[in-house]
Write a structure and sequence with these properties.
Layout (H helix, E strand, L loop, with lengths): L6 H9 L14 H5 L5 E5 L5 H9 L4 E5 L3 H12 L7 E4 L15 E7 L17 H7 L3 E11 L2 H13 L3 E6 L15 H8 L5 E6 L3
Parallel strand pairs: 1-2, 1-4, 2-3, 4-5
Antiparallel strand pairs: 5-7, 6-7
This protein binds S-adenosylmethionine (SAM).
The site of S-adenosylmethionine has 20 residues, from helix 7.
Length: 214
């Protein structure tokens, strides 16, 4: 994602009640942050938030947390949402995936979405890919037993890598599609910003759902 230095990004995030500033304090009690008990679904690397905002609107019975490490990207989601109908079942965190063990207690998250994650094409960077076995092991520390990771990408190399990593980490593949938009099994599909961009150019969208072992 192309980044610009946006001076007002920090200020907008700092002043927004949508962004939880000290998420570690809610570890094991995210229900309090939402003032209700409900399943918790998270998106890691949400970008400008189109996917998670739409999911939260469509599924008011679920609590959603969007996670994005770049303030210069996250503030776009915050700014946009401030001009729209409020969503009470959605919060944002400005944090990297690698710190999430300190934010969520074991079993606290019911579902993880990874959309168009950075491919990290160099072999020596494979551990940084959000579908690497190292990251799957990290997700096991807070994902509910039999919880799933849903992953979409335009990047075939990252997709093939992910299809190997999940079983190697002991996860079960429950859905694999090499052309999601043409797949009769697609079901509900909320498009992300990147998905819109790539699919409008005619590129196939790959999707994998992996379930963690019980
Ligand atoms: C290619 S963009 C995709 C954005 C959005 N999910 C979409 O599909 O339109 C990937 C995003 O993930 C974020 N990201 C990458 N690695 C991350 C990490 N380790 N923790 C949190 N966010 C990350 C990047 O800052 C970037 O905004």
């Amino acid at each position: 994602m192309r980044l610009r230095n946006v001076p007002r990004a920090g200020e907008i995030i700092e002043n927004s009640p949508l962004v939880v500033k000290t998420p570690e304090e809610y570890r094991g009690r995210w229900e309090e942050a939402f003032s209700r008990k409900a399943p918790l679904h998270i998106e890691i690397g949400m970008g400008k938030g189109r996917f998670i905002v739409e999911m939260a609107r469509r599924h008011p019975e679920i609590n959603y947390i969007g996670i994005e490490m770049q303030t210069s990207v996250l503030f776009r989601a915050v700014e946009k949402l401030q001009q729209e109908e409020p969503v009470s079942n959605l919060l944002f965190l400005c944090i990297t995936a690698e710190k999430l063990e300190g934010v969520f207690a074991p079993g606290e998250v019911d579902q993880i979405y990874l959309n168009f994650s950075d491919p990290w094409p160099k072999d020596r960077h494979h551990k940084r890919r959000l579908t690497s076995r190292e990251h799957l092991a990290l997700y096991e520390k807070f994902l509910a037993s039999e919880g799933c990771v849903e992953f979409k990408t335009d990047n075939e190399g990252l997709f093939r890598f992910s299809l190997e990593e999940a079983p190697a980490a002991g996860w079960e593949l429950t859905f694999v599609s090499e052309n999601l938009h043409e797949d009769p099994r697609m079901g509900e599909n909320v498009m992300t910003e990147y998905e819109e961009k790539f699919s409008s150019k005619g590129q196939p969208i790959f999707k994998m759902v992996a379930r963690r072992k019980a």
